[in-house]
């Protein structure tokens, strides 16, 4: 959809268009209510501003739509399609990296009680593994904040993709 089309949607339609970008009602309604936007960049900038910082409960709710890194999202939802497209750019991982990602995902879930989330776009499997291993060492509060920042980056990329 174009920015002009997005700007002209009814509020309910805009809300539904935004939900797959970041399923946080506060963010969705702020972005929808901020219309009309003059260009995609100003829309994405406004979306980044209203998202930051995401609250802990918002982060936990938004994570429900994200699969583990290295696992392909199933289903036909917009969130699943976004996730498959984002992880498709990673290509194939070698067996060692794939095994270490799976073990790291399990260790992360054990330590933090949620899936590991990272913006996959523009990163290799090796870079993701390095980040996973680094983030496993973080303080839980710092890690929660970093997870929120990753969600914000993903939302901005998805919103930009929606409007181009």
From TrEMBL:
> Pathway listed for it?
Purine metabolism; urate degradation; (S)-allantoin from urate: step 3/3
- The record places domain Oxo-4-hydroxy-4-carboxy-5-ureidoimidazoline decarboxylase at 7-160
| A Pfam family matched in the record | OHCU_decarbox
- Name the chemical reaction catalysed here: 5-hydroxy-2-oxo-4-ureido-2,5-dihydro-1H-imidazole-5-carboxylate + H(+) = (S)-allantoin + CO2
Enzyme type, top EC level: lyase
Q: Which GO terms describe its molecular function?
A: 2-oxo-4-hydroxy-4-carboxy-5-ureidoimidazoline decarboxylase activity
Give the UniProt record's GO annotations in the biological process aspect.
Answer: purine nucleobase metabolic process; urate catabolic process
Q: Which InterPro entries match?
A: OHCU_decarboxylase (IPR018020), OHCU_decarboxylase-2 (IPR017595), OHCU_decarboxylase_sf (IPR036778)
EC number(s) recorded for this UniProt protein: 4.1.1.97
Composition-biased stretches, type Basic and acidic residues, lie in 68-87
Q: Which UniProt keywords apply?
A: Decarboxylase, Lyase, Purine metabolism
Name the segments for region: Disordered: 63-96
Please verify whether the record's keywords include Transmembrane helix.
no
Q: NCBIfam families this protein is in?
A: PRK13798.1 (NF010372), UraD_2 (TIGR03180)
Kindly provide the name given to this protein in its UniProt entry: 2-oxo-4-hydroxy-4-carboxy-5-ureidoimidazoline decarboxylase
Q: Which species?
A: Prauserella sediminis
